[in-house]
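Could you show me just one protein sequence together with its fold in token form as a worked example?
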Amino acid sequence: MPEYRTDNTSKILLQRLPILIVIIGSFLLCYQYCFAPDEALPIQPGLFSEMVEVPLDFYNWGVANYALQVENYLVFQNFEVLAPVPQIEKTYFFGAVVCLLIGLAISLITTFRRYHFIGAMALVILMLTFSGVNSLNIGSVSSNLALIILMAGFTLPAMVIHFFYEHIPLTKRTLIIAPIAWCTIALLLYLSPTVNPTLLLSENLGLVALSVAAIFLLYVGHALVGGFFLLLTKLNQGVGLKISWHLTIFTTGYLLLLLIILLHYTNSYSLPFTYPPLFPLFIVVGVAGWFEIRAKIDQIDQPFNLPIVGKSLYWIGFGISSMAFWKASFSLNQPMLDFLDHWLLYTQIAFSLLFFIYLMSNFLGFMNSGKPISEVIFRPKYFAYVHMRIGALIALLSLVVYSDGVIAPQLSTSSTNFSADYYYATGRPLEARILYENSWIRYRKNGKAKVATALLYEDENQLTLAKQQMLEAFEWSPSVPEVILAANMAHKRNRYFDALFYLEKGLEIYPDNTLIKNNLALLYSKGNKAQKALELLPPNDRSGTIQANRIGVQVKHLLNIDHLPEPGQDRIGKINTLAYYNLIGDFANFTIEAEVSDAPLTQQAILRNQWSNKTFAPIDQDIALVDSLYSKELSTAAQQELRVTRVIRSYQDHQVSSALKYLNGLAIDFEGSAGYFHGMAAYILIGQGDFEKAANELATAEMMGYRDFKSDQLPVLYFGGHKDIAKKIAEKYQLEFPEWMKNELDSIGNPQIDMGYFGYFDHLVQLNKATKDEFLTFYKAMEDGPLKVIYAHEILFKKGHWLSESELKEISSYLLSHKDLDSRYIEELGSIARQKVTKSPESPLLKVYFPDNAPVATNPYFTPMVLMAAKDAPSSEERYELLRNACEFNKDARLWLTMIQAARDLGLTGYVNTFVDELRQWVPLTKLQELQESED
């Protein structure tokens, strides 16, 4: 046998590169388990919303408190199983690494002695037949030509060099053999007519990697016990401790642990705790085996002369095995992972037990002596080491039989999953579904295959078959994705109790699973079992999803509302918390902005809930944002909700006329919800004291199907000119008039006295179109009290432009005499009535009417402000338009006369006559003439 020379290139290429791949593979394994366990079959929280009514504004008119109610979003996150995600890039990387390592391994095999080389090459040829390369269909469908080319490229150069050029240095033969092998792969991929042949070959190489991993795990079967013994003997040299006890305790504990795990994997017995994955054991065993391989190379005659060959082959086997574990993990190929786990357990138990017996039989007499036993551990005089391995193989077969030979279906089903993944990734769902279904039939612990089958049936609109798949899954032990998918599919079909059963059964199998608990809690919430729902959503859970759902459940059911969890930085949690603050009528201590990356539902919920609480951006910017969202392709319901959100934003900026006009548009565009929009408009008008228009809106709302009437709306209808409708609604919905109305109505339904609540509300209703004599006379006749304060404020707010300086001072002084009122607001309101405002007010209630320090007429009922804005209008046309818009709502006579004068200035004679005729409908002719004379 020739002596092959080695150099640094050989060490880098044949030893350090495989070690690097082992490190990369181990890192990828850990990363996949810790950070991307469900990447191939993602389970993500899907969004759905429910609405909760919150008060946007409150109005106190002395006789009743009115609240403008709007809906806020409660966003819930229900975990959903999405369609499998093809792991194409990872599969490419896996296939490339396996090909790289196999090419290096073949170059190393050429250094073997003749018969060892022949045996090794026979093994290589056998494993190449597992590659499924004939599926590349080179020449014809399933032709053997591809396999022939593969074998020729991988074996012929190695044979030629071994038999005819055996003195070529290791580096050179590697640089000849490995590139030829890789070029052979490239040629096959080039010649293949199949769809994405690179992916197909990479998937099929999984079986080759699995075979190498099985051999490697056999080889390191006793590595941990052997490595521990080597460590003990090194530490005990010259000391003389009884390391036999250490070895016995360690081996016994290790074997007991492995047996418990094996019983768990075979469903024979399981301790009540979660078992860790086995890949860390594989990594530890692989590292421990490195110390054994060095001892074996020194003590046992090897089929090669250079130690680097054995060491490199070890790291190559370790690298391919780590890639096999990673492949099973990232593709969620459960049969493949189960095969590797079972085989790891079988080999560790069988070989560790027999190796322990081997050590105790051959070295017990002097292992405690402190002599360097590690140098002769694999050179026994009795009970040959090879016989120990034969005994371990017999023990291994016994374990396989005990497990009912489950590794056979695991192995074959792994291969089926490779093909199914390939067809699914290349856009052929029918073939993929057939293979996934066949895979699950042969091996039931195959969650991804079952879920993929059900989802593919659902995509084909074969809902009955999809449902059948989930029923079959529950006949066995379903995985978490299967439980979640079964419940969600039942829920989509409105089978609430079926969904409840699936999740409750799943929780029995997986009692600590957060995903199942979350979905079950949301179902309990839907069934009004709020307390049971909260029990499944722990308040201190760090998951933002769980916390957000808990907040939503508490707000929805008003349960433990005083102990709401903090939302932290979770956006959905903040949305639900905003709904809580809006519900109690308080400002939140945070704000949230919609982002482009947010889901459409999240964007809508943020805008609605945030703007219902407080705004922080200019209205033009916010309206542009709503319009941009509305322009996208959304469902009709989503478009409707966005337009309601725009109404809320306009109202929050005191743009009352815009809000009302937009509500009218909504009622026209969405007839099914027209009653709701008319009812909302009625409450806005009630807040502005326009009870006549509010009564008209309520009457229209009732006609359009609005049913949410309350007793405090009856006075609005009655005094707003719809007495008959008020009585009809009271009778129809079994409502009662307020006591103050009952006491002041005789049997005919007419007021008996003109003062008190009845007279107050009647004059309040008429205030918008009342003249100075009418409202001031009633004001002076009123008794001091809360009603007079309200009426005085309305005079100052709406009718201040009618008053003389002495009258303004009188009313302002009366209001300022009440210490609970904002004195700055009253003083600045008086200044606006005098039309003597030179700068933006400091009161927040009035400051909104002066953006950029210029008065705006956004509220048509704030008549002094409208007149001030008209006076500052840059042109006659804009002045007239501003006044015209305000007069669409406001019936103040002076406001109308100002509008009429603006029309005259523009020469709109026809409009002037029309406006005068309209004004005469509520202002007597004599009074109108008097007002016109005073205006002139």
